[in-house]
Every structure is written in structure tokens, then in C-alpha cells.
Amino acid sequence: MTLVQRCLVYLNSRLKEIQDIKSFLNDYEKLLKNRNDQNSWYKKTERNLRLIGAVYDDENYRGSSQDGATLSETENVLNQIQKRLQLLQKSDLFDLVNKRALQSIALKNTNVLVNHKHYRYVKTLWIELDKVKPGKSDSEKLKHEQDVINGLRQYAKSIIAYTLKDALNYELKGTYQRFSGEHLFYDTVVLAEDKNVFKIRIGRFEKRIIVIANEPENTREQIEFLKKNNTCLFYYSENPINKILQTISINPLDPDTIERAGTFIKKFLLSSYNENLKRSYKFPQLLKYYVKYIPHNQVSFNTSDYTFSFHSYPKSELKEDDIKKQFETDTLFAKKSRPDKNNIFKELSNLINEINQRAEDLKNKYLHCFSCGEAFQSYIITELNYMKCSCCNALYENSSEKEITLKIDDARYSSLANKEFGMDYISFNTQEL
């Protein structure tokens, strides 16, 4: 009788596992049937399909004939066994047995269990059930909980690696404990594990990632504590709602996990991209009253901290001779001695050469679409804080200085909500990093 009860407990757990798998495959099937590129963002849909497609195509689940055939066949066999065992439970013999006595029964070898052609399999079954018995000691429960969190931690690492390689086209190098990702125009990413904590470096940004199994409270005090310690929480959730950078929900059964991981990584990449576009460079204090003669159509000067930066696409080189001619009418310059004038012209020449070189570097290294990498042309963009790619319709906007937005500006998808674009819509304040 004890064997019957233990078999039923085991069968129930197996049937629950099958139901979870079928539910997962049903969600995938809905994704396939409901796919419509005109009514959804196709890149997000394709990322979802790639992420779970390998599972769906696994013949252990799908079978060789009909989708889910092998899974359904297994479920039918288990259901039949379960029904037979339940009928045994309802028999008169079962009612006569003392249920309390069943709890402490241990298997002992008898002639019947050793030699009978049918009952000799009871011992084997009993031993196997011992390995999956539902009742666990405190140490076994602790080990099980540790296994769960370790599994979740490894899943978090794998989803970061998958996002970098599959969604963002990084080339990964290294080991499972520590790897780096190189990209043609994104910053280098390095991920290392140290005492169950992930340390990720994205360009100049460094964060600690702690994986937990429960949803955090997200109180203001907790968020400030995480920000102060450069820490983010990756947590398991069946109802993910991500509104802040410091807490990211993950779920192996949710294909949108890759979108949340991608958004997390791309915020740092986008912030770095923004910094490179707006980087300031020093110019000599000697030229404080003369930089006004340098054309301001592509570069601006701050005479308070003696820096210059680009605000528009640098369409043409600055001509030193044209700028020097304007000095002839400057009364302050006219009062200078010849050595001072020569020194000013020398510094001016160096500055113009630097601006022209910085302009070339800007065009070659940074003036490309953040999403697809297509190089921007001078006739497409004017201001560096508002640039739209003619190839993929990705729009980068930083008009409000601290707020950065990257989105798809395409009339065909104007009816979609921002969340439907997944990691291809990002809007955040740089202070939250």
C-alpha cells in the first residue's frame, strides 16, 4: 500500500511537469499563429521565436508525426497508470490497512520480492522512488533551495550571454566563469562571477548583479541603496513589470526575458554612445576672445571652462586662412605685440587642426546608427541630439540633455505601444544609471 501511495505522489509530479511543458508549447503556438508583422514589431517577434524555437523543435517534445505527439503519448500512459493505482486505493483491502503504519514502513528483502517474476521489480521501483521522495529533511530542503537559486543564477548568466551574442551581435570570448564581448561599434562588455555575484563592465560602467528567487519590495530606500552600491537585482517573477534599472525580472518560461536583459545592457551602451557624441575638449585660454571667429555651424565653445564640442554634423573642414582674416578687424588683437600675435596664431592653428581631426574621428567612429550601424550622411542629419537612420528608421533623441530616447520612427508601426518594441524602444534618464 505504501508503494501505491508513493507511486501516486510521483505520478502527480510527473503529470504536473508535462502540463507545464504543454503550457509552454501552447504559448509558443499562439506566438506562431498570431504573428503579423504589420501588427507587431517583427524584430521582437523574431527574437522570441529564436529564443524558444530550439525547445519547440526538439523531437523529444514534438515527435516525428504531430506536434506534441510524444508529449501527449507520455501523458496518456501516465494517466492510465494513475487511474489503475487510484482504483487500488478504492479497494476493500486498501481500507483494511492501518494508514499510520504505512508511514514508517521500510523495504525488506523476502523470497517473494527477490524471486517472484513480477514482485521482484518492486524493490527496483522502491529504490528509484527513494531518490525522488517528496518528504525531505531540513538539510535536503536547504540543498534543494540552493540548487534552485544556483539554477536561476546560471540562467541569468546564460540569458546575458545569449542577449549579447544573438540579439546584439557581440563576439564572445573566454570561459563560462569569465567572458568578454567585442563589437564593431559598441563598447566592450565583460562579465565575471565572484562568490555568486556577477560583475559586469559595459564600457566605463561597472555593476554588480545579484540573482534572487523572490520579487523585491522596490521601496525608495532599497532602490537608493542599490544605486549607491552599483548593484542590480535579477529576480524570478511570473508577472514581470520592470520600471527601474535596479531590478530586472527573469523567467525561463517567458521569452520576453531577453527583451528586459537587452534593455538593461543597451541603456549603458546608449549612454556611452551619447557621451561620445557630446564629448568636450579643452582649448587654450589664450584664445578665449578669439574663438568667436571660428564658424559655429558645427562646433560650440564654452569660454567658462575653455572647452569645445560638436553640436552638428561636421560637413567641411575649417580653413585657417579664412579665420585669420577676421582677426584684422579685432581691436584687442591689434593691440597685441608681434610675439603675442604669433603665439595666438600658433595656438589657433593647433586648435583648428585638432577640431578637424576630432571631426573626422567623430564621423568615422560615432556618427552611425546606434541600432544597425549604418553610417550617417551629412544630408540626413543636422543636430547631433536628433538623428534618424534612413536604413532602419531608428531615431536617437537627446534634446533634453539628461533624457535619452531610442525608438523606431516608422509610420507602419505607429499604432504599437512602446512596450511592443521590446529592447528596440528605450527611454531613460541618465541619472538612473
What can you see in these coordinates?
With 433 residues, the protein is of the alpha+beta class. Helix content is 45%, strand content 15%. The chain contains 14 helices and 14 strands. It has helices at residues 2-33, 42-56, 59-62, 69-89, 92-96, 99-102, 111-115, 120-131, 138-167, 220-228, 257-277, 320-325, 331-334, 338-366; strands spanning 171-174, 178-182, 189-194, 197-202, 205-212, 231-236, 247-250, 281-282, 299-302, 307-310, 386-388, 394-397, 403-408, 426-429. The strands form three sheets. Strands 1-2-3-4-5-6-7 form a seven-stranded mixed beta sheet. β12 and β13 form a beta hairpin. α1 runs antiparallel to α2 and α9 packs across α11. The radius of gyration is 33 Å and the shape is elongated. The model is unreliable at 58-65 (pLDDT under 50).
Count of extended strands: 14
Number of helices: 14
The residue-averaged pLDDT reads 87
Structural class: alpha+beta
Q: Share of helix among residues?
A: 40-55%
Quick summary:
The chain has helices at 2-33, 42-56, 59-62, 69-89, 92-96, 99-102, 111-115, 120-131, 138-167, 220-228, 257-277, 320-325, 331-334, 338-366; strands spanning 171-174, 178-182, 189-194, 197-202, 205-212, 231-236, 247-250, 281-282, 299-302, 307-310, 386-388, 394-397, 403-408, 426-429. It has 433 residues and is of the alpha+beta class.
